[in-house]
Design goal:
Layout (H helix, E strand, L loop, with lengths): L3 E7 L5 E5 L27 H8 L3 E6 L33 H8 L5 E6 L5 H7 L2 E4 L19 E6 L2 H11 L14 E4 L5 H13 L6 E2 L4 H20 L10 H10 L4 H24 L2 E5 L8 H5 L13 H5 L3 E9 L2 E9 L4 H14 L14 H5 L4
Parallel strand pairs: 2-3, 2-4, 7-8, 7-9
Antiparallel strand pairs: 1-3, 4-6, 5-6, 5-10, 9-11, 10-11
Helix pairs in contact: 6-7, 6-8
Pfam families: Amidase
InterPro entries: Amidase (IPR000120), Amidase_CS (IPR020556), Amidase_dom (IPR023631), AS_sf (IPR036928)
GO molecular function: catalytic activity
């Protein structure tokens, strides 16, 4: 199925953009990939990010598909169809910004605009072998983005080319400037729980760029993951509960929403306490270093076949979701595939210093063979079918 659910032609610039269908475009309904919103009226005005994109001279060519209600990590969607993962077709495209990632991986657009509440830009970017940036929380305005309220969600770009992503950020955010060149970053590699093959690929990248020496850890990563899960459950339930009894939700989303209703106020209070402690711990580590490095995904993505028979894997977001809780900028950049399966490196920066994350990424790209272009796409092997990840 196509990564786009509606073709558009807005703007006159040469650079093409697709916009996730949880983001308003005036004159078109925002359905968030859900039959429950099939009758939604057309949006009356553009979301802030759409206004900025058009004002910057980009051309919007389509509304991008997504995991229903942006509430899932696989990217599968029984109502709109599931975007094919262009570079790894046997694997899930990742969610929830599946269409945005698949579109740029397929060359349908230079930029995909997505949203990231618990890894929803970085996970599909990693699954599809492209770049994805979750900016500092609040950096790009969320006016006109569904849900209306979120203490975790960020609007951000995906691209198959790092310089395209950087240029887009500079175009839509006057305060964003990476500058020329790629100075060596003060970088710390976080020690985290991940598959040995994934860790080896990250280590090889950092060693190849001369950045493998410094190591550190964040002991509250697991607690931060749980806290972010509690918050997204409550906030998504509050935004979407009205559609629970419509009979038009996908089974996976309906099941998760009903479970989310059980989130307690005590869990939310604990989550906010963890948010404060984890954010402070990340800030402390970033007093010494400019950026932190770790895998984007702790293991290889599920096969699409496994996901289609109902297998779930929320742990795929274990290394990305904590930084939604803390609000720090986070960039996923693709590494060369391992036995036909995607591997990505994640860079975390100081809050508000998104440019340093992009400079560090540029440094790594310049000194290490990062990513796979369309001519280098590798079909997923039979072994990947047998070992879809945890």
């Amino acid at each position: 199925m196509s990564s786009l659910i509606q073709a558009l032609d807005l703007g006159t610039g040469p650079k093409r953009v697709v916009v996730k269908d949880s983001i308003d475009i005036a004159g078109y309904p925002t359905r968030a990939g859900s039959a429950a919103l099939a009758g939604a009226p057309a949006a009356k005005r553009h979301a802030e990010i759409v206004e900025r994109t058009l004002a910057a001279g980009y051309r919007i060519v389509g509304k991008a598909n997504l995991h229903e209600l942006a509430f899932g990590m696989t990217g599968l969607n029984a109502w709109t169809g599931t975007p094919e993962n262009p570079r790894f077709p046997a694997l899930i495209p990742g969610g929830s910004s599946s269409g945005s990632a698949a579109a740029v991986a397929a060359g349908l657009a230079e930029i995909g605009i997505g949203t990231d509440t618990g890894g929803s830009i970085r996970v599909p970017a990693a699954c599809c072998g492209v770049y994805g940036l979750k900016p500092t929380f609040g950096r790009l305005g969320r006016h006109g983005v569904m849900p209306t309220f979120s203490s975790l969600d960020c609007v951000g770009p995906l691209s198959a080319d790092l310089d395209e992503l950087i240029a887009f950020m500079a175009a839509v955010d006057d305060g964003f400037a990476v500058g020329e060149g790629a100075a060596m970053p003060r970088l710390c590699r976080l020690e985290v729980a991940a598959d040995t093959t994934v860790l080896a690929a990250v280590e090889a990248c950092l060693e190849g760029a001369g950045l493998a020496g410094k190591k550190g850890d964040l002991p509250l990563m697991d607690e931060a993951f749980d806290a972010a899960m509690a918050l997204i459950k409550r906030e998504t339930y509050m935004a979407c509960a009205a559609w629970l009894d419509s009979g038009r939700l996908g089974s996976d989303v309906e099941r998760r929403l009903r479970a989310a209703a059980e989130t307690t106020d005590a869990e939310l209070r604990e989550a906010e306490a963890v948010r404060l402690a984890f954010t402070a711990a990340v800030d402390r580590l970033l007093e010494t270093y400019e950026v932190l490095a770790l895998p984007t995904l702790p293991h290889f993505p599920l096969t699409r076949a496994a996901a289609e028979v109902g297998q779930q894997d929320l742990s795929v977001s274990s290394l990305v979701r904590p930084f939604n809780l803390s609000g720090h900028p986070a960039l996923s950049l693709p590494l060369p595939p391992s036995r036909g399966r995607p591997v990505s490196l994640q860079l975390i920066g100081r809050r508000g210093d998104d440019a340093s994350v992009c400079r560090a990424a540029r440094y790594l790209v310049a000194r290490y063979l990062v990513g796979t272009g369309p001519d280098e796409a590798i079909q997923t092997t039979g072994e990947a079918h047998a070992q879809p990840g945890r």
